Every structure is written in structure tokens, then in C-alpha cells.
Amino acid sequence: MENEPEATSIELEAAAFRRLVKHLRERSDVENIALMELAGFCRNCLARWYQEAAVERGLELSNAAAREFVYGMPYEAWKNQFQKPEPKR
Description:
Blueprint: H1 6-26, H2 32-39, H3 43-56, H4 63-71, H5 75-82
């Protein structure tokens, strides 16, 4: 697929990105700290990259809106529903 048109490449990259976001939404059991430890990025990183891409294109996108896109709901709602409390030491 070396000679594919740029539009096709962009479509494939976008599809892969949407699949990653969908997968992360479905895997709420995987915590961000585990993602950071194993993959070097987490949902918040992905949201930040999404926001940075918007800004680079002259679009306004808040951190909250970017996180809502990645998490599929407002970040605070996701934390309340899925994030486990830190163990007491």
C-alpha cells in the first residue's frame, strides 16, 4: 500500500484511531496508570494529542471536550463510574 493516495492513508489512519478510542472506551477496566506503565501513554495523553492537533489546525478545543471525546463521557463522570480508589497505605 505504498502508493496509496494521501486521502486513503488519512482514512485508514482515522479508522485505526477511531478503533483505538472505541477499544479504550470498552476497556474501562484498564486503568490509565497501567497504560502509562506498559505503553507509555494513556487516555489523557490521547486526549491531549487530539486537542493539540485541533489547535495546530486553528480550531478551538478545550481539554474537557477532548477528554469527553476519548472517554465517551465527561471525564469526571468516567472517573466516578470506573476509576478505582487508590489503596490506603
